[in-house]
Amino acid sequence: MIKLKKLVSVVTIVGVLGVGGVAFASGLKTPADITSELTGKTVAEVREERASGKTYGEMAKETGKLEEFKTQMLEQKKEILDQKVEEGNLTKEQADEIYTKIKDNQATCDGTSEAKIGQKHGVGFGKGQGNGMGRGAGMRNGQGMGCGQNLNR
User: Fold this and answer.
1) What's the whole-model pTM score?
2) What is the DSSP string of 40-65?
3) What is the pLDDT of residues 109-145, one digit of tens each?
């Protein structure tokens, strides 16, 4: 049990540092920041709940803010896709296709992070360093917000 707690702590810290650095550098908010603003919880409280297995979308849904969360996450993901096009990691057509899938997915998104559209297309909306077109510029740490990609990211 102690080993599991240590593992969860290490994974959470690594994820937060990786995501936080990318988001800070580009001026984007992390899913934890967005969830915190919408729910009135501190970022630390949000991250603690996330570490226990709850998605950011589920937290937003509990407070009646899922639609606002999805809207803000979609905006963040659009910015990331645009940046990847600018960097030459995606074509405009690829980015548009991913964005359309994310937007379409939001129609039935319940906040549980099941779609993982970004993962399916190798965009790396939050897998940290190493994934995401080889540069790891993500917006999720672990499972984050899979619906609305799915930026969890």
Assistant:
1) 0.60
2) ---HHHHHHHHHTT--HHHHHHHTT-
3) 888 766 555 555 555 555 333 333 333 444 443 333 3
- Cα within 13 Å of Cα(52), Cβ side: 9
| DSSP symbols for the chain | -HHHHHHHHHHHHHHHHHHHHHHHHHTPPPHHHHHHHHH---HHHHHHHHHTT--HHHHHHHTT-HHHHHHHHHHHHHHHHHHHHHTTSS-HHHHHHHHHHHHHHHTT--SS----HHHHTT--SS--TT-IIIII--S-STT---TT-----
Tokens for 14, please give them. Answer: 């690594």
State yes or no: pLDDT of 61 exceeds 70. Answer: yes
Q: Do residues 102 and 150 touch, judged by C-beta distance below 8 A?
A: yes
Among the listed residues 41, 78, 88, the one whose alpha carbon sits nearest the alpha carbon of residue 62: 41
